[in-house]
Each structure stands twice: as structure tokens, then as C-alpha cells.
Amino acid sequence: MKLFLDTSVLLSACGSAKGASRFIIEEAKVQSWELTSADYCREETLRNLGKLGESAVVYFRATLDRRIDWQLNALTTDDIVIFEKAKDRPVLISALSVKPSALLTLDRADFHDRLGRQFYGIDIRTPGEWLMEQREKGLI
């Protein structure tokens, strides 16, 4: 199963060892989840990582950066996309280009509230919501 991780999830995984975001990173290999994100998200994460402290920087460098399949930024798509948030548009279009099962984000206002729970067949969930659904289906 391929999961596309937004910057908010990447930062959360680096900043907290106990949250759903970190659990997904740590459990991905065991569960055969393919973790992917865009270079845009990587750069955005690196710009903000220092605000979370040295342990977040260490976790990113030692673990997270190596477990994510970083994709080139996609800036165009054949799909019709009307999405007002310019800063999040590269995230959405990059996710569309890799066709994940789910786009995981903690940015409810810009993704969930504007797009709903699915976009062109890609589920849009928070890490916690996605994990609960997997548990309910008996997949974890």
C-alpha cells in the first residue's frame, strides 16, 4: 500500500515519538507500506525542522529521510484541479502523480475541508484516522 505523506505528517513524525505519524514511519517496513512524498515536502520539512529541536533533526537525518521515497515535484496533471491554496498545490499534484492509496495530512483546513475525504480516488486522511480504518479492517 502506497502512502503519500504531507509536510505536516513528516514534521509530526520528527517532533513526537508517540504520535500516529511516527508510528506509520516506524511500522511501514513491517506492514509493507510504501512511504512516498515530494521533494517539495522534503524541503518544506527541512526549513521548519529546526523549530522542533535537535532530536527532530536527528530523527529526520537518521531515519525518516531514508524511509521515504522522495519523488520529483509534479507541477502539472491531466486531471482537473481547482485548489486555491498555492502553497499546497504542489503537494496535491505530486500526490496525484504517484497515485497513492492515501494522502496523509494533518492540515484539515486546506485538505479535508476543501477537498473532502477523497480526491480522484485518493483517500485524504489524518494519520490517526487512517490507522483506525486499517485497524477496523483488520489490516493491522
Q: How does this structure look, described?
A:
The protein has 140 residues and is of the alpha/beta class. The chain has one domain: Rossmann fold. 53% of the residues lie in helices and 15% in strands. It is built from seven helices and six strands. The chain has helices at 7-15, 20-31, 39-49, 54-67, 89-98, 108-115, 127-136, and strands at residues 2-5, 34-38, 69-71, 102-104, 118-119, 122-125. A six-stranded mixed beta sheet has the order 3-2-1-4-6-5. β5 (118-119) and β6 form a beta hairpin. α1 crosses α2 (20-31), α1 (7-15) crosses α3 and α1 (7-15) packs across α4. The longest helix has 14 residues, at 54-67. The chain is globular. The model is unreliable at 79-83 (pLDDT under 50).
Quick overview of this protein structure:
The protein is of the alpha/beta class and 140 residues long. It has helices at 7-15, 20-31, 39-49, 54-67, 89-98, 108-115, 127-136; strands at 2-5, 34-38, 69-71, 102-104, 118-119, 122-125. The protein has a six-stranded mixed beta sheet.
